[in-house]
Design brief:
single chain; 321 residues; mainly beta; ten-stranded mixed beta sheet; four-stranded antiparallel beta sheet; 19 strands; 36% strand; disordered N terminus
Length: 321
């Protein structure tokens, strides 16, 4: 019996020693009312991919919206209704290194229902290789609740830059944090999600998904105290995403245009020119596969750069082998 008790004690001691560093990695900030202000943690806590929704919920049209950040380029939402989204939000990318800080603002009036902080980043403008799945890949992030189960998420924020806590009310355009490169990120940007959720967020739990995510570019942005980004291209989508040897583009051109399409790596260099020429107005469905050229590029994250009549925009894609 003594031997069994000794072995049990050793097992318990081993478990405590194993769990001790995990406990040291995270803590919960508690307000005076015993409500969790925020989760502060470096623990990696991946979640399943969120499911894409289709048409925006009607209630979203009754909300005053403002773009949450300025950017040098954007990465598009990608997803088919009812299936796992390829890219769950819209990326507001700011690659100008001469601008030290880029603020993030509330996209609408709302209430803070979740805050995650404490996620590190290895650099601001290069591939983050530090705890990439912390915050479920969103890194440091904030979730705001709006009308009737409409939510927004603000991801990849700079550590220790978050200015709000759970329970705070915010106004459209209010500064809530600073853009960063935490989580599953390749360069400084804001990952902005629009979602719905029928159950409440648990402010004391680890990262949580929406029930459905939607393309926030379908919102009617009307607030004007932040510089808007013009929507340069209409009805655009890439498929499949992730892609391997085949890549197709659907796009609507409002008028006859000179069109150039390049596959760009994370450093901004043009890797492959997929198309260059003049296209007629209307709906186009283009095969961008370049025989074996797509086969020869490495697996990873890329951007497709579309340039038309001096306007350009980036769309995020994933290459798989």
């Amino acid at each position: 019996m003594k031997v069994i008790r000794t072995i049990t004690q050793l097992v318990l001691l081993s478990m405590l020693l194993f769990l001790a560093p995990l406990k040291a990695q995270q803590h919960i900030e508690i307000s005076s009312g015993s409500t969790c202000n925020r989760i502060v943690s470096t623990v990696e806590d991946p979640t399943p991919a969120q499911i894409a929704g289709g048409t925006l919920p009607t209630i979203a049209s009754g909300i005053v919206w403002q773009r949450p950040a300025i950017s040098t380029s954007t990465g598009a939402f990608s997803g088919t209704s009812g299936s796992a989204a390829g890219h769950e939000g819209v990326d507001y990318i700011h690659s100008n290194q001469s601008i030290v800080e880029v603020v993030v603002r509330a996209a609408a009036n709302g209430k803070v229902v979740y805050v995650r902080d404490g996620c590190d980043q290895s650099s601001m403008f290069e591939h983050n290789n530090t705890t990439r799945e912390a915050g479920a890949g969103w890194g440091n992030h904030i979730v705001l609740s709006h009308k009737n189960a409409i939510y927004t998420r603000y991801g990849h924020l700079l550590k220790n830059s978050i200015l709000v806590n759970n329970g705070d009310s915010v106004k459209v355009g209010q500064i809530i944090a600073t853009m960063g490169n935490s989580g599953r990120s390749e360069l400084r940007h804001l990952h902005f999600e629009l979602g719905t959720k029928t159950t409440a967020f648990d402010p004391c739990a680890m990262s949580q998904n929406f029930d459905r995510v939607y393309n926030s570019e379908l919102l009617n942005y009307t607030a004007t105290d932040i510089k808007s980004i013009n929507k340069k291209f209409q009805g655009i989508s890439f498929y499949p995403n992730p892609f391997d040897k085949r890549l197709n583009l659907k796009i609507n051109l409002e008028k006859e245009s000179n069109l150039q399409i390049d596959l760009v790596d994370l450093t901004g260099r043009n890797t492959i020119q997929l198309f260059k020429g003049r296209m007629n107005e209307g709906d186009l469905d283009m095969n961008l596969s370049m025989s074996n050229k797509l086969d020869n590029i490495a697996q990873g994250i890329y951007f497709v750069k579309i340039t038309s009549n001096q306007n350009s925009e980036l769309f995020k894609l994933i290459k798989q082998n």
